[in-house]
Design a protein that fits this description.
The structure holds three protein chains of three kinds.
Chain A lengths: L20 H6 L14 E7 L5 E7 L1 H4 L4 E6 L32 E2 L5 E7 L2 H8 L3 E6 L6 H6 L12 E8 H4 L5 H11 L1 E12 L8 E5 L5 E5 L4 H12 L6 E4 L15 H13 L3 E4 L2 H7 L3 E12 L5 E13 L8 H6 L12 E9 L13 H19 L3 H8 L8 E2 L5 E2 L4 H12 L1 H14 L3 E11 L7 H6 L8 E7 L5 E5 L8 H14 L5 E4 L17 H28 L6 E4 L2 E4 L5 E3 H10 L13 E5 L8 E11 L5 E11 L6 H20 L31 E4 L19 H18 L13 H8 L29
Parallel strand pairs in A: 1-12, 10-11, 14-15, 20-21, 27-28
Antiparallel strand pairs in A: 1-5, 2-4, 2-6, 3-5, 7-15, 8-13, 9-10, 9-12, 13-14, 16-17, 18-26, 19-20, 19-25, 22-23, 23-24, 26-27
Helix pairs in contact in A: 11-12, 11-20, 16-17, 17-18, 19-20
Chain B lengths: L6 E3 L4 H11 L3 E4 L5 H6 L7 E4 L9 E4 L2 E5 L4 H6 L1 H6 L1 H8 L4 H6 L2 H7 L7 H6 L3 E6 L2 E6 H4 E3 L2 E2 L6 E8 L5 E7 L9 E8 L4 E7 L6 E2 L1 H7 L6 H8 L16 H20 L6
Parallel strand pairs in B: 1-3, 2-3
Antiparallel strand pairs in B: 4-5, 5-10, 6-7, 6-10, 8-9, 11-12, 12-13, 13-14
Chain C lengths: L1 E7 L2 E7 L5 H8 L18 E4 L2 E4 L12 E3 L14 H8 L9 H14 L5 H7 L11 H12 L5
Parallel strand pairs in C: 1-5
Antiparallel strand pairs in C: 1-2, 3-4, 3-5
Helix pairs in contact in C: 2-5, 3-5
């Protein structure tokens, strides 16, 4: 048979409108909270108002007597059936991991932790009764904040004896991937440049728009859980592993899921409690959180203090980079937990040729909301650190920030390139992406305007921010995950079912929640199988339908799940070839396959693959050594990560009188290899950008000293609106660096915008006011922080110390900006 | 997300509403547009036994001309206030501030009287009402009384409206032809103002009125600034000294969005900008 | 319990409701109009936006009893979807990829329809300001704004 890959693609690269949309724009949706079942009961959670307290007593009598209440249960009412919430990635063998009961009976470790659950016939009655549960607490000292936690004077979990959970280290000298960073720093202190900074990655909240909801129906032979989750398969595994129900007796469905961004990459106490209650009462039950509950108890992201030392020669060529992170896990080690900062460990060297590198990550436990993945998960933090440092280095050397990057980046001739962190980047072209971004942005004209405004002393100053990035995505090669002690693999599964009528069902283990899999996967299959786009149906998110999978996160669905699909389709074509040869009475070697049709070379004979599907269904005539089916499965385990990259340029205006910043222009050129659907890709980039921009400018989850979440509603946790954002210039490399480790040549794009935009924005804000003596502004760059940074030296701002509260007085890495 | 149970009364006249209020006393809560009340009830921060909905009282809706003043019915929505020709002609400042209240959906339901009676220090309408010397008409079982704006705002979420009274309308002295601007400082659009300044000026500049939002537990009037503005030229330099007095006597909060000293600084800057904008803005645009 | 009579998506409906029941809960729980969703508890997100007597409101911020005698239009009644019709704003959201997860979309579309009724030819800035009461976490608003402008160009009916 002749290969088909050389025929022009009809679907891949086309801006197909999404298959998903018809339902979503007309309100015919299946959000978990929409599900009602006969006899269904509703749950309301009783949550601790204290960040750290022992539970003295729980009086449920009044609640039980409340109208239509069926049960009121607390932790001590359950035994092992409640299970535990697991950590799947203990980053070191010595990691201290507190037991995480979904509903502890004795002690709560963060404000918002569940201590009792009320079951009633309506959600309103459940809530009414929840108010009547009388819990007596003995409040304990709470530890909040990374630096307090490191002191180990107040303990989040006294039984552990320390707040320090794990220390994870990578050193290029020890790993043999580079030199000794201390030697590089010593050398630079003697005759080069050393830049030391401390950056704060503030705590963020994923804030998916659909609050989490879970429905459990225990009335079938398989117990069914519907959940607003990114990870139905992992959820099923964890339920089986921790609650004693055989995996084969569990069905998990992720119906329509309204966004995740890592925030629904979790196995939650709410799911476990709902599961236990349904089993206990043998009735369907539902729990849907309020937004306030979501902000308080669903996991948060980021929250690191980064202590950074960059060594360079006098020309700005980096000779070594040393990174120490302190990362706040919150009250428990979550599903991925300390693995999130570790995912960043390989990315601090970014697109650069650093000769020496050392990374340390100390995770700490505190009495605050637990943390886990949030869009980018470790890589935005790494990119922020290095891209802020490269700007500082450019300022020190006195060259344009793009120039300093060019002096250090891997040139396109040097790929494949093994980095100081030990990863092999297969392809990339940083020069091309940067040139294209500069051109579209109008870089030189904006620099000229910036100079003009500076000279004029304009009240509104202009700053230009640069961020280049690469990321490791497509999580992940299973062997690599194994070497990092992650508890599972990183493969993905796909099936192709050729239906009798010629329609095609695709089953994928990826679980979409807004990404457009149904459309993009249909395009891939339409091209590769040669069937109409409309004839392909993509099924996912239900363990009965898609029994094997590892779900959606880490920009993996296309590059891992899509590749599994390709492999399954190829198997179908292989089977179909045999059947076609049989029916056409020709040799397989004489068949051509193109556009969904087998033809016998040199004749007018042929048969369509959809006809073959019908023939296989009828099974009246097929080869003796073949099963009467064209269906095929494939499980694909990637051999490497893939490494999209890009150059992002941002122009920010800063009102020096008020400190208010506004975005003037944003241009990005991302090289993500082959693009399946440019419309969907642009959407991913736009959304990613705004989440990254929001970290730079608006969002911060703040716990007060007692551990109460101050930013506990959308009134205080500031998500941007359409009125706060602009339209973006999103372009791609003209000649993309195609990924060499998958068939389609694709690279991940789901997290790119978020990873690159945060440093681009902060670099722009700092660039606007650097001439006023500012070298850093803590995120989010609130007007007040910007104003204080600008006026720290001129007496206009009365309390300059407040500008950078993340810098401890007298700390070694004290930044000079505030003095 | 689910309020505590309450009984619901929907009177169709002020008299009926007062009677219901008299009957239920402290257990009752008046609901105007409900756009601030319902979130409070949903979060169970308040749990009245009876909600008295003024939505059915048609007499409380609309704007009329009463010679030297316009009268805005308490149940007139922000959307209606913003668009009303009488408001735009005679109290441009109010129209501009109403346009800045929350978002379009909230402005369709939220009411002028409701917002003023709620007396949120970060509410957008108190400062303009104060600056324009509005008079608040309050009905009780013994008849109505009129309270000057300067006496209406008593404290944090507290007004001169008695427990057995209802705000029915607000008289706003005409400021026909006065330029106006409402300068609202927020980090994101859907936020309550960190600070806002309501400024209206006659000529450029013969006379000025300046109100401050969120610079203390109640809306404040920047009287020193007003006095200093009379007769200055509508230029940066002309206005600067007067604007620099704007924070005098204020008592702003400190929170995640800004410390008190920063808010004072903002009040000065925003006052200058608002006054200059107002001087150049005699009509709706 | 209070008896209410109203019109929802063109159909007359009548129910006994608790006064505390929010309009959005009435739509979802009593009528099964689950196209309208709840995204927050502070009236910030706008996901529950519907039209009450023709203008946009946040249905979490209206009691069901307040809708007595009035007319409500939800995303499900915006066009005759049984006939396969789409409202031009719905069509524009699909055309311009104005949605990803789709959770905010009903509210976005209902608010966009209201905005265009009041201002049929808005500028980009007017669209951005007019949609400030609706939060989206997926799209970065870029394509939502584009969708509304696209609908305006196409002369979307109110």
């Amino acid at each position: 048979m002749t290969a088909t890959q050389d025929r022009p693609a009809q679907e891949i690269g086309r801006d197909r409108r999404r298959k998903e949309d018809q339902r979503l724009i007309t309100g015919r949706t299946r959000w978990t909270d929409n599900i009602t079942l006969p006899g269904m009961l509703h749950l309301a959670m009783v949550r601790s108002p204290f960040a750290h307290a022992t539970i003295t007593s729980i009086d449920v009598e009044e609640a039980k007597a409340s109208p239509n209440v069926v049960a009121v249960l607390s932790g001590k009412d359950f035994g092992d059936e409640l299970g535990v919430n697991i950590n799947a990635w203990p980053i070191t063998p010595e990691q201290k991991t507190p037991t995480h009961s979904p509903m502890p009976a004795d002690r709560v470790a963060f404000a918002g932790e569940i201590v009792a659950v009320v079951v009633a016939r309506s959600a309103a009655e459940a809530r009414d009764a929840a108010e009547l549960v009388d819990v007596e607490y003995d409040e304990q000292p709470a530890v909040v904040g990374i630096k307090k936690a490191l002191e180990d004077t107040v303990l989040a979990h006294p039984e552990l004896g320390t707040n320090k959970s794990a220390l994870w280290v990578f050193d290029s000298a020890e790993a043999g991937t580079g030199g000794d960073v201390e030697a590089a720093i010593a050398q630079a202190r003697a005759d080069g440049i050393v830049i030391e900074r401390e950056y704060r990655q503030q705590r963020l909240i994923p804030a998916f728009m659909e609050p989490r909801s879970v429905v459990v129906d225990p009335t079938g032979e398989q117990l069914t859980m519907w959940s607003a989750t990114q990870i139905p398969h992992i959820l099923r595994f964890a339920l089986a592993a921790t609650t004693g129900v055989p995996e084969s007796k569990i069905r998990v469905v992720a119906p329509d899921v309204g966004g995740g961004f890592g925030g629904k990459l979790q196995t939650t106490p709410e799911e476990w409690i709902t599961w236990a209650v349904a089993r206990r009462l043998s009735k369907p039950v539902k729990y849907t959180e309020t937004r306030s509950e979501s902000l308080m108890a669903a996991h948060h992201g980021r929250d690191q203090v980064q202590t950074l030392t960059l060594a360079a020669d006098r020309d700005g060529r980096v000779t070594g980079f040393k990174v120490h992170l302190d990362a706040d896990l919150g009250a428990y080690v979550s599903l991925v937990g300390g693995g999130v900062p570790v995912l960043g460990a390989f990315m601090f060297n970014a697109i650069y040729k650093f000769p020496a590198y050392r990374f340390e990550c100390q995770t700490v436990l505190t009495n605050s909301t637990w943390t886990d993945a949030y869009r980018g998960a470790g890589r935005p933090e790494a990119t922020y650190a290095i891209e802020r440092m490269m700007d500082e280095l450019a300022a020190e050397v006195g060259v344009d920030p793009l120039e300093i990057r060019e002096r250090n980046w891997i040139t396109h001739e040097e790929f494949p390139f093994t980095t100081v962190a030990g990863l092999e980047y297969d392809t990339g072209n940083y020069e091309a992406a940067t040139a294209r971004a500069k051109e579209v942005f109008g870089y030189d004209a904006l620099r000229a305007e910036q100079r003009e405004r500076r000279e004029r002393g304009d009240r509104v100053q202009l700053g230009i921010g640069v961020s280049t990035f690469t990321e490791m995505c497509g999580l992940a090669p299973s062997r690599v995950l194994g070497s990092l002690d992650y508890g599972a693999g990183g493969w993905e599964h796909a099936s192709v079912r050729m239906l009798a009528t010629g329609k095609v069902e695709i089953v994928t283990g990826a679980s979409a929640h807004g990404q457009g899999h149904e459309t993009a996967f249909s395009q891939i299959v339409a091209d590769r199988l040669g069937v109409p786009f409309e004839d392909v149906e993509v099924l996912h998110g239900d363990t009965q339908v898609a029994p094997r999978g590892l779900d959606t996160y880490g920009s993996r669905s296309l590059v891992v799940g899509g590749e599994a699909l390709v492999k399954a389709v190829d198997k179908v074509v292989e089977k179909a070839t045999r059947l076609a040869a049989h029916l056409l009475e020709a040799s397989e070697d004489d068949l051509d396959y193109a556009g969904g049709r087998f033809t016998v070379r040199g004749t007018d004979q042929g048969i369509a693959i959809q006809e073959l599907a019908t023939a296989a269904f009828a099974a009246h005539d097929y080869p003796e050594d073949m099963e009467p089916s064209l269906d095929a499965d494939a499980t694909y385990d990637p051999v490497n990560f893939n490494y999209p990259h890009g150059t992002h340029l941002c122009a920010m205006e800063v009102d020096t009188e008020t400190g208010k910043v506004s975005m003037r222009k944003y241009t990005c050129c991302d090289d993500i290899g082959t693009i399946i659907n440019p419309l969907i890709v642009a959407g991913q980039v736009h959304g990613g950008l705004v989440q990254g921009i929001a970290q730079a400018l608006w969002e911060e989850a703040v716990h007060d000293e007692s551990g109460t979440l101050v930013s506990g509603s959308f009134v205080d946790y500031l998500l941007p609106t359409s009125a706060d954002t602009i339209s973006f210039d999103v372009v791609h490399a003209d000649d993309p660096s195609v990924c060499t480790t998958n068939t389609l040549g694709t690279k991940g794009v789901g997290e790119a915008g978020t990873i690159a935009s945060t440093p681009a924005v902060v670099n722009a804000v700092v660039d606007a006011v650097r001439h006023l003596g500012v070298r850093d502004i803590q995120m989010p760059c609130t007007p007040e922080r910007v104003w204080r940074a600008i006026h720290a030296n001129d007496g206009d701002a009365p309390t300059p110390g407040g500008a950078m509260p993340h810098f401890d007085e007298g700390a070694l890495n004290q930044d000079g900006a505030a003095q | 997300m689910i309020p505590v149970k309450f009984d619901y009364v929907a009177p169709t006249s002020v008299e009926e509403a007062l009677a219901a209020l008299g009957e239920h006393g402290d257990d009752a809560k008046i609901m105007a547009g409900g756009q601030s009340l319902l979130p409070v009830l949903r979060m169970r921060l308040n749990a009245p036994e009876v909600v008295i909905d003024l939505g059915g009282i048609d007499a409380l809706r609309g704007v009329r001309d009463e010679g030297d003043a316009i009268v805005v019915g308490a149940m007139t929505t922000h959307h209606e206030v913003r668009d009303h020709p009488l408001v735009r002609e005679h109290a441009l400042l109010v129209a501009k501030a109403a346009a800045d209240v929350a978002d379009a959906q909230i402005r369709h339901r939220g009411t002028f009287g409701g917002a003023l009676a709620h007396a949120d220090p970060a509410g957008d309408l108190g400062a303009p009402a104060l600056a324009l010397g509005a008079q608040f008409v309050i009905a009780g079982t013994d008849g109505t009384r009129t309270v000057e704006a300067s006496d209406f705002f008593v404290g944090l979420f507290e007004t001169a409206i008695g427990d057995d009274e209802i705000l029915t309308e607000v008289r706003i002295p005409k400021h026909t032809g006065w330029g106006a601007h409402y300068e609202k400082f927020v980090r994101v659009a859907h936020q309550w103002p960190i600070v806002a300044v309501a400024a209206t000026v006659r000529g450029s500049i013969d006379e000025a009125r300046v109100g401050l939002t969120n610079m203390g537990p109640t809306p404040l009037r920047a009287r020193a600034t007003e006095a200093a503005l009379a007769g200055v030229s509508a230029t940066e330099d002309g206005v600067r000294a007067a604007a620099d007095l704007a924070a005098e006597g204020t008592d702003p909060p400190s929170d995640l969005n800004g410390a008190a000293d920063y808010r004072r600084h903002l009040a000065r800057v925003l006052t200058r900008r608002a006054v200059l904008e107002a001087a150049g803005a005699q009509a709706w645009s | 319990m209070t008896k209410i009579h109203l019109t929802v998506d063109g159909a007359a409906v009548s129910d006994d409701v608790e006064p505390r029941m929010l309009l959005v809960q009435y739509l979802r729980e009593k009528l099964g109009k689950t196209g309208t969703v709840i995204g927050c508890d502070t009236s910030n997100c706008g996901a529950c936006t519907v039209h009450l007597d023709g203008t946009s409101v946040k249905s979490c911020n209206v009691l069901a009893v307040q809708a007595d005698g009035r007319s409500v239009t939800t995303i499900e009644g915006l066009a005759d979807t049984v006939e396969g019709e789409l409202h031009p704003v719905q069509e524009a959201f699909r055309e311009c990829h104005g949605l990803q997860c789709g959770f905010c979309t009903p509210g976005m579309i209902m608010q966009a329809v209201d905005l265009l009724a009041e201002n049929p030819h808005p500028t980009e800035e007017e669209v951005r300001l007019g949609m400030e009461g609706n939060l989206c976490r997926c799209t970065g608003y870029h394509n939502i704004v584009k969708s509304v402008l696209h609908a305006a160009e196409g002369g979307a009916r109110a």
